[in-house]
Amino acid sequence: MELTKTVTPEFLAGGGEMGELIRSRDWSKTPLGPVEAWPQSLKTCIRIILTSRQPMFVWWGNDLINLYNDAYRSILGGKHPSVLGLPAREVWKEIWDQVGPRAEVCMQKNIGTYDESLLLMMERNGYPEETYYTFSYSPVPGDEGGTNGIICANTDDTQRILGERQLRTLKDLGKYLAASRNDADVYNRSIEILKENPADFPFACLYQLDEGKGSMAMAAKTDKWPGTTPLPETLSLADTITADWHFREVIEQFKPAIINGLVEKYGVLPSGCWNTSPDQALVLPVMQNGRDCPFGLLIVGLSPHRQLDEKYTSFFQLVADQIAGSIVNVHTVEEARKRADALQEIDRAKTAFFSNISHEFRTPLTLMLGPLEEMLSQTDGTLTPQQEENLTATHRNAMRLLRLVNTLLDFSRIEAEKVRAHYFPVNLADLTADIASTFRAAVEHAGLQLTVDCQALSTAAYVDRDMWEKILLNLLSNAFKYTLEGGITVTLKEEDDYAILRVRDTGVGIPADELPNMFERFHRVKNSKGRTFEGTGIGLSLVKELVLLHQGTITVDSKEGAGSTFTVRIPLGSAHLPEDQIVKTAVSENGSSLSDIFVNEALFFSRESEHHFIEQITEGEEKARVLIVDDNADMRDYLQRLLEKHYNVETAANGKLALEKIRTHIPDLVVSDIMMPEMDGTELLHRIKHDQATNSLPVILVSARAGEEAKIEGYDIGADDYLTKPFSAKELLARVRAQIRISRLHRHAIDILQHSAEELEKKVEERTAELLKKNAELEQFAYIASHDLQEPLRKIRTFSELLQKSLQKGNTANNYFEKIQSSAERMTQLIKDVLHYSRLSNKEENFVQIDLNTILQQVRGDFDLLIEQKQATINNNTLPTVKGIPLQLQQLFTNLIGNSLKFTDKQPVITIYGTMMPASEVPFYPGLQEHVAYVKLEFSDNGIGFEQQFAERIFAIFQRLNERKAYAGTGIGLALCKKIVENHHGVIRASGRLNEGATFTVILPA
């Protein structure tokens, strides 16, 4: 009672702005009456809501007069303050159908209500707004009893509900778009996900942009449009509707655009889950950063119950970005797949090439080996010892060439999965010991020790005999090649149902960083010490493939300078093998010849022919000293026999031994192979030329690498001359004679010749700088084909010629030699044909008179279909005649016209104008000669052009000014054009303006 007597209007004190507003208002003319007369229960409710930070209101009396606190003002929005003191029915007339029944239950039945996240379409800012509230109506008893009012606390859930809904859409996009297979799949999946959110996407559609054609096609949409659709399936960027929807603006500026007044323009549109048609739409670019053009456009009908604020716009932009990211991922995966397919196709082509070329080599080899073996078996004293030695060397190198070819063929067959193993139960210990013992003679001849320890196995091992022989012989051959002292140990034992073969040597070992690459194709350790550098580089790779066919594994353990151990593990028994490949009778293709080939080659490699032959010098005559450096004993012997008649000759098996001899006694000339173990010819040359005592010593490099590029490389590293195998004896003698003569003149005029050599070297470097940039494809195979195949072939031809010359006419052996030489010539031609793939010939003798009109007509024919598709026009006058290389000039026209067609979006107009230029009118350009008439050709187009600052840059190899996805190409077309023009002693220049076309001017000698 004491509290009741002291209540005054001060109950409004501390009520914030709303407390002041209630106290300052005249309530005497309202149903509530003056504030002083308000019942105590109302005053208590007012005190509760004014001191609370929770949005709250009180509805009082039969009219439910509206009273509220400061926090509730945000819910009222634009209705505040005019709704203070009004009946609730007037305050919330737009939602009274929802809240009225709840208020009636509370007032009449004295029962409270509770609603969680109830959707209420409030009109508080001039439009029906989507809102979600959690609230409870609690009845308030009056001072006299009964229910006199309602007090309510509110929680605004709108942002939470909207955020969860939008996040769900973004999560679904991220989840389901990841499985898209192509662009169309991305668009369809995107629209299906947007359909699941009709509140934010009353309607949506995606257009895919074709920038080249300047058109768009609808890729997907959410619903069928009622009546006539305002957005057609396809449209051009020039159409009127494009301007109405601001499509071009969005595409060019990469910014979204808002489209207003849809209902007035198009009538009823899809409305999603709402009863009201959207009156606004948002157009967004679907694009990746860094691209010049969007992938497409996303058109979204905006909810009529949301305002497009920054947060809402960001949500739609995230949707567009998700779609763009998925398209990028699809393109990335597709490009990766295409690259993988291309690599597989290259691999298949390479495998087929190896197989075919190996078969082609085997035919002439058979025709060589047959007559050679027949002659060797019929020697009856008709041949001199020198002739028999030559014949034996010819046969030995033919057999070596056959082994190389067979290795290539075996490997290509495994790659092509055409090898079918025949697994037979064998006594693996005895088989391994027998194969290993065939190497004993070669190993002991080289001063090494061979240890074979093969323990009997408890279970039979199923192996393909020929494959097991190839595995063991390759490992033994490899160990022998790189073991210079000590020995080789072969062991076989059983461990955990596996047969374990180990081939251990005390050789030079393998560097740690090379170990992971030892079983890769064509891999060879550079500058490794060994008996020879010769080989294909696929022996260990072949061994690995053969071991895998036995369901086994192979590993290597090695330390540089301490030897290597190769370990092969294959399962015992036959449970792991295909049943249809297990046979009862052993199948063999090679017989004993395979071991013979490996052993004979090993015996050959063990010959360290360090002859110190010095012919007696005739009194008063000074013979020049020549040092021959080659790891191949036959080649050393052959060169020595050629030169010893005229010079004092010494030999060395590698660069390291040669350098020791040079330091002891400087010769007049060095003739050196390039590819050798321990120290190759390049390193030897470097050491000679960078030593003050030997920098004037002339060096002739000998290599099987053919072609102009190889010669230039030899000259570039400092060689005085470069000789390509196979070569004739006359050519070798002439070059040796010339270098010795120069060397002797050098002693008398060293200062003059040094200056001349520097000038010559400078000119060579200037003229060949561009050629050195060429990257030869299939470099590994070029080494194999040119060095390891041509070298024994050259020996076959050389020794057979020597033998034939030494025989009398009419001798029956001449017929055999003719067959050998015919087969050798055929193989030489095959090798030359292979090497033509990696060389571009620009020799002067290939220049002929060419009618450029004929070239143009051929190129136009090649582009007929593209010209028709693009509605292109090619104008030209009568072009002059020039002297050049037809194939290269056709390539020049093809690249320049093809560029114009590619970089002109629609209706290209290409003009080709040619004219003769008298010598007096030729402009000055570096590279053009004075007093020479030229032909000028101009190729102009109306394409996208380029900025003039890039006029030189576009001729650089792999240089692109445009995105690869917008304009396909490799980036080497114009670089190739420049090279072709320079091959013809001309110049090419480019001029252009962005989006205004380009002109390429070509000036060639008339």
UniProtKB/TrEMBL annotation:
Q: Which residues form a coiled coil?
A: 750-777
Record domain Response regulatory: where: 625-740
Which Gene3D superfamilies does the entry link to? 1.10.287.130, 3.30.450.40, 3.40.50.2300, Histidine kinase-like ATPase, C-terminal domain, PAS domain
Which InterPro entries does this UniProt record tie to the protein?
A: CheY-like_superfamily, GAF-like_dom_sf, HATPase_C_sf, HATPase_dom, His_kinase_dom, HisK_dim/P_dom, HisK_dim/P_sf, PAS-like_dom_sf
The top EC class is: transferase
Q: Which residues form the Histidine kinase domain?
A: 356-574, 784-1006
Statement: the UniProt record of this protein carries the keyword Kinase: yes
Q: Which reaction does it catalyse?
A: ATP + protein L-histidine = ADP + protein N-phospho-L-histidine
- Keyword check for Kinase, yes or no: yes
The alphabetized UniProt keywords are: ATP-binding, Coiled coil, Kinase, Nucleotide-binding, Phosphoprotein, Transferase, Two-component regulatory system
For this UniProt entry, the molecular function terms from Gene Ontology, in alphabetical order, are: ATP binding; phosphorelay sensor kinase activity
| Record CDD domains | HATPase_EvgS-ArcB-TorS-like, HisKA, REC_OmpR
Task: Identify one Pfam family in the record.
Answer: HATPase_c
SMART domains for this protein: HATPase_c, HisKA, REC
- Give residues where 4-aspartylphosphate occurs: D673
Q: What is its EC number?
A: 2.7.13.3
Matches recorded under PANTHER family? HYBRID SIGNAL TRANSDUCTION HISTIDINE KINASE C, TWO-COMPONENT HISTIDINE KINASE
The entry's protein name is histidine kinase
